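Usage

Read records sequentially. Each one opens with the input sequence:
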Amino acid sequence: MTAPALTLVPVLIDGTGTRANARTATLQSDLLDRAARDDYHHWLSTAAAAGGCVRPIRLRGTVHDVDAATGEILSTFDTGAMPDRVIYTSCGDRRASVCPPCAETYRRDTYQLVRAGLAGGKGVPESVAVHPCVFATLTAPSFGPVHTRPMSKGGKVAQCRPRRKASYCAHGRRLSCPQRHKDTDACLGKPLCPDCYDYDAAVVWNAHAPELWRRTTVTLRRRLGRLAKEHGVRVWLSYAKVAEFQARGVVHFHAIIRLDGHDPADPGRVIPPAVITAAQLAAVITDAARATWFATVPHPARPRGWDITWGTQTDTRIVKVTAAGEITDVAVASYLAKYATKTTEAVGIIPVRISDGNLKIYGSPHSHQGRLISAAWRLGHHRHQDFEALRRWAHMLGYRGHFSTKSRRYSTTLRALRTARADWQRRRHRTAEQLHLEETTTVIAVTDLAWAGRGWRTTADAFLALSAAARAREHDRIAREEMANVS
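and closes with the structure output:
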């Protein structure tokens, strides 16, 4: 990573929130000063623990390894002996627009989690590969016509909103668009008439989308239960889901929905009866999405409440592991993992929560996103808890759910993956004597660490640490490619 490239990354320096844009002369001086120190390699190894994070967390304190049986302190690690008297750890933010390296780690973990539920591994039996499985996409309803980029059956970009006869809304704006937009056009997702667009309904739908998903899974389980009862069998439903913001500022959900057999001894991990096929599962998902709806509590702006339903564009595709001509497990897992690291990138991310002080800045009536934020803030004045949360989540355009969720029995957990990675990294730096002690004794780590700051201390430190992390990632990439070629 070069100095000009580093200036393009939102690197946090010593908690000031500034970019790494120090003058070249100062940067070179600081680089030489750090590299000339006797403890440089020791410092670089501690900085590597942050994994190339652009806004790492600094901690100070002690960590004791304690014998669980006797309570004896076997060893003590004190950050006071470290080069900067602190240890560095990654921020763990999953948003690619905030911290690309941490988002990449989250993406890889999500990929492993999703793929394990499709093909097995990570504690999941490989027999799940033959379970009926459907990749479903559930979208929001329309809140007004917006600029789109439709594709024809031949794979070419079609006209946005062609009309033979021009029609106009009550505000005098034309409700058609003959353009073939590029994927970089700024107008994509923006309404043809902002004054006609139902911003209130859009943010209310975002706020209630998680509840709509919950009710949909309840309906789906009930309908599958009735179908299974007709065949005299019992089944179990497992899923993994990610939420993605569309360019128009509303979320939609991508989900892997898997059918499992029901076994009290090992629920969710046995092959289901063959009488229920993947095509039947897809049909039940579509029917459940169409049938599920509910009305919000009354609001002064809408005394009868808003109806919360799915849009008409419900897409279901059967997943077959490594089957030619079908969506493979690798493709689906990569797709879900990709969107697990995104939030509002499609409409422009808001880095802070909305308040009375910055509402005029972020809630501008001259932008689509600003109108969504303004609508969330205005509707959030109502004291009912369903609407009060709109102000807290106005920076997320009203959405207050998780961006990556799964059912309990779908596969492993992110915590298990992170624990395994942390154990591997810790064991890498253990001596043979320490490893033998851990194998024969139950050791508990007792930490007493306190916050020491966020970000790198200097621009030079950021440059060296991120450059080393970039080289390590490149080395890993080349190693994976060589191993793939050998196999």
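Summary fields computed downstream for this record:
- DSSP finds 13 helices and eleven strands in the chain.
- The CA atoms of residues 270 and 472 lie 40 Å apart.
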